[in-house]
Model the fold of this input.
Amino acid sequence: MSRRPDDAFDFSPVGVVERVGGDGPNTNRGQKGGVTGFALGIDWLTVTFPLARLEECSVFDLATVCDFIFGSAAGFKVMRPTGRKFQFYNDYCVVLDREDQLAGRICFGGNNERMQVELTGAGCHWVPSWSYVHFQLEILSARITRCDVALDDFQGVALDLHELEAQAKAGLFKANGRPPKTRFIDDHGNGTGCTLYVGKKGHKELCVYEKGKALKDETSPWLRVEQRFYGKHVGEENAAGERVGSGLPLDIVLHPLRYFRAAHEYLAELCDRCGILDVANKLKVVKAKVEATVSAAVKWFKTQAGSSLNLFMQALGDDADGVLRKNLTREPLPSRFKGLGAAEKLHELVRHELCPVSM
Done:
């Protein structure tokens, strides 16, 4: 068993998350958006491991599996087994984050006595130390079957999605052998966002899309470049030609940028243009999500209730604040603001978007 790294229990993001080197291109085409620069990090993780290894580590309760792998500071909550099958497993539990939003699943039962744990992009946001996760995965003799690494360009300055689509069709991503398949989903200007796919799901797939528009902000310039790695076809072949020990290297959780750059020559050139030196601060991604969501919410509210609100305020005069607060507001958080990863900072970030001068 390898030695536990000195920083295995360092839950400070500063210790494991380095800032981006430089702000990259500074021509933002005059588009809106308060968050600038770039961010890169892990956006999906799926691992499998033998149940026996978990038991050898004295982990017998499903509720503590996520704490063991990701650390209790992540704040994940494991729900009761659903009693339903998922993929090759007989049962699974839903994992929620500290905002009670879906963060992943724990799958078990059958499949050669193995367990599968997956974190969604929202779940990955809460992981405080990937070096700790790396060490725990080594202890479990785990295999990484999927890992997504995402580069966020908050001002949309590093590439033009339509130009990239044309270059992809022309063979930009061609390497040895046949060029990968490409697919482009065009929103035809309706504001829902375009998406480019390069490669094949289950092998190695690149997905480039308009993240801000996916969050329903039709004017957002935010682009996301997401490289999806799959471990099914990674590993060594035995004498019979069978692939054994399949899975992505565990080091991908420690050095996601290294694997992102190596996936395609274009991605290495893109990182150089943007000045990406290492994994970036996750807070930028949270701020960008809140920015896009507030923009979409303001547009919706103005369209749906703006004229009525104006009438009420004029009719009520000085009593408007108290009457409207009592009769028109209610406690639950709007669904669009759930799962942004802002937690206790949500009100502060929303206020900053609505009243930037007062902050």
